[in-house]
Structure formats: structure tokens, C-alpha cells
Amino acid sequence: MNPALTVAVLLAAGALSWILRIAAITVFPAPRMPALARRLLDHATPAALAAMVGVGIAGGAAAPGLASRLPVLLGVVVTAVLARRRRGLVLPVGAGLAVAWAITALSEP
User: Where are the domains of the chain?
Assistant: First the structure.
């Protein structure tokens, strides 16, 4: 695929994602939402993190042997520990990804 086309598709996907998020906030502002919906939204961040971790573990579990799964599993541990101690997704997911990448890079010959 052409690199310029790839960048254009990624930018379009990002713009569409942003528009959908802004539209949801504009159409359904939190103060006008029912209390039950606001309580459910409190669980959106942990649910998104759990979904990403689940996909990472499932993908790593397809690899044969523990050594090939080790980077993903250690990345999950780092992500879980940081997510427990800090609020937000960027730091835990970024740190978990960095750990998984570093272990993979160090283990390659």
C-alpha cells in the first residue's frame, strides 16, 4: 500500500473517531444523563483496559512456549500495577507496551 494512502486512511479514521466522541459528548452531556448511565460510565476506563489486556493475552497465548509469551505477560503485569495505582489509560498502557517491546527486543538474537 502506498505510504501516503496509509497516512490518509489513519488520519481519516482518527478524525472520524474524534467526531464520534465529540458528538456523543455534545448530544448527551453528563449532567443530563440518568444517574445509572453516569455510574456505568465510571466503569468505561477499566473495561477498555481489560479489553486491551485480554486481546494482548489471547494473542500472546497463541504463541508456543512460555518464553514467547513472556513479553506480553510481563507487559500485562506492569499495566495492571500502574492502572491500579494511577488514574487514566495512557501511562499504564504505554508502560506495559514499552516493557513488552523492550523484553522482545532484548530477547532477539
Answer: 1-34, 43-109
